[in-house]
Design goal:
- By secondary structure, the chain is mainly alpha-helical.
- Helix content is 74%, strand content 0%.
- The protein contains 7 helices and no strands.
- The protein has helices at 12-18, 25-60, 67-80, 83-87, 90-109, 114-127, 134-150.
- Helix 5 packs antiparallel against helix 6 (114-127) and helix 5 packs parallel to helix 7 (134-150).
- The radius of gyration is 24 Å and the shape is elongated.
Length: 153
């Protein structure tokens, strides 16, 4: 007569995870912050380059509805979201999110407000200033959100 035997293999990853040791949370955060400091200058340069592309794209926008121009500007702005926090300018992320929301609303509804788009692009440049205090950035961000909300469905 034969018998059934169940074999449960040992998973190496499970064993490693159960083994004590490794970095503490504080050490991991410290290392992460050091890594961010290392890439911050490169990130600032890339975000500044994106801003220059966005300003050029804005200058090319037609005075009447320009879907292709808005799509180009959206593609530039969305690439910068998240970089502001790494660069030490978290307000930039909020401004870029608001700009992308505005462009979405304009393209979806068929409305066009070139000055509203321009305000967002100029605010991006202002918020890139490392000396701008939080108290100065907050009213700008609130204003940008109001402009975007104006065109929400």
């Amino acid at each position: 007569m034969s018998s059934v035997r169940f074999v449960f293999p040992k998973v190496r990853l499970a064993e490693i995870l159960k083994t004590p040791g490794g970095l503490t949370v504080a050490e991991a955060l410290e290392r992460a912050e050091a890594n961010l400091e290392e890439i911050r200058p490169t990130c600032i340069a890339e975000l500044a380059t994106l801003l220059e592309y966005a300003e050029a794209a804005f200058e090319r926008l037609a005075e009447d509805f320009d879907d292709a121009g808005l799509a180009d500007l959206y593609a530039i702005a969305v690439r910068g979201i998240g970089a502001g926090a790494v660069c030490g300018a978290p307000g930039v992320d909020d401004a870029l999110t608001s700009l992308c929301d505005l462009i979405d609303h304009l393209r979806t509804t068929g409305h066009y407000d070139r000055p509203a788009v321009g305000v967002h692009v100029r605010a991006w440049r202002l918020l890139m200033n490392p000396d701008l205090p939080l108290a100065g950035a907050q009213p700008v961000l609130d204003g940008l959100r109001k402009v975007s909300a104006r065109y929400a469905a």
